[in-house]
Amino acid sequence: MSEGSSTYAGAFSRLSDFGSPPQGSPPQTRLEPAEARRYLEEGLEGVGRHQYYNPQKLCTAINREIKEFQFHGPAQYAVFSPVTDEEFTKIDKVRSRSHKGLRFLFLTNERTLVVKFMVGVAHKIALETFAELFMLKYSSMGLRRELVCLGGACFSSLASQKEADRAYKPKSRKYLTDLPTIVFECGVSESLKRLMVDAKWWLENSGERWELLSLLLFQWRKGVCMRRRGNWRTWLIRRMATRTGGCKIVGETVTGAPLKISFKKTMLRDPDEGLGEDDIVFDAEDFKEVAETVWAALEWT
Predict the structure, then answer these.
(1) pLDDT above 90 coverage of the chain, percent
(2) Among 222, 121, 211, 231, residue whose Cα is nearest residue 164
(3) Which residue of 43, 138, 168, 246 has the fewest C-beta atoms within 10 A of its own C-beta?
(4) Is the model's pLDDT at 226 over the cut of 80?
């Protein structure tokens, strides 16, 4: 745990005040105790937990966390508390200027901010390469302008706010408050447990109506793993390399079934087969393309 870390006794002492609203009461505006504990604890074992003072000190702490993680830290997250709604707005403004790669989960009543940070160029390239390939598949069906990229826009539930690494919605969803239909979460293998918590947030707040992709970059093992909601099947690409002087001998293996993304759940309508519309599929060759791009980036750094 990093210097400046603090315990969360204050946050957890308030959990006993939570409870299911009585029948006929207004919608729940607080997380249930089990939900709050999951978002505050699960997958965050050993990460830096910091007393929040101001946006500038938060940025300093995050820069330190990123450096520590690059030397095999526990996960690509840091936690700050207490953070009020007003302070969260200030943090967001600072992030927009100098830390655009950060992604937030803000738990309103717990006054806690969970920050996910990118851990290098390979992380960003993995996300961007897969997102580009995703859009190319829709463009090939003439739908490039029918699917809107929302980037890392923030979405709200009754008791929290969260940002994806990348989110999309069909053009038919015209309003700013309309939720995305497909969400990407990207991270390294060390963060798998927490990425599954992130996935649960999207699923629970959508009524499981969305397509969800968690893109996992096994940076230290030189592999790329894709996980999809539901049965959490795994698509893994791993490359074993042996160096002989200046020569690199590479063997490749690909395991797992193709990844299929539902057209209907993404576009909110049935595909028109006469126009060549269908579910999109990512096969072994697609994963190799993403993986090779990431590995090339690792060679550059």
Answers:
(1) 36
(2) 211
(3) 246
(4) no
Is the whole model's pTM more than 0.85, yes or no?
no
Residue 9: pLDDT band by 50, 70, 90 thresholds?
Answer: very low
Position 80 scores a pLDDT of: 98
Residue 300 pLDDT grade (very low, low, confident, very high; cuts 50, 70, 90): low
Whole-angstrom Cα distance, residue 240 to residue 236? 13
Residues near 114 by beta carbon (within 8 Å), at least 6 away in sequence:
39, 40, 44, 77, 78, 79, 104, 105, 106, 107
* Cβ atoms of residues 157 and 205 within 8 Å: yes
Look at residue 301 in the predicted model and tell me its pLDDT.
52
DSSP, residue by residue, the chain? --TTB---HHHHHTGGG--PPPTTSPPP-S--HHHHHHHHHTT-TT-EEEE---HHHHHHHHHHHHHHHTTT-S-SEEEEE---HHHHHHHHHHHHHH-TT-EEEEETTTTEEEEE---SHHHHHHHHHHHHHHHHHHHTTT-TTTEEEEET-EEE-SSEEEE-SEEEEETT--STTPPPSEEEEEEEGGGHHHHHHHHHHHHHHHTT-SEEEEEEEETTTTEEEEEETTT--EEEEEEEEEEETTEEEEEEEEESPPEEE-HHHHHSS---GGGT---EEE-HHHHHHHHHHHHHHHHH-
199-226: buried (b, 16+ CB within 10 Å) or exposed (e) per residue? Answer: bbbbbebbeeebbbbbbbbbbeebbbbb
Lowest mean pLDDT of 76-85, 135-144, 238-247, name the range.
Answer: 238-247
Distance between CA atoms of residues 143 and 135, nearest Å: 9
What is the residue extent of each domain of the chain? 9-116, 121-300
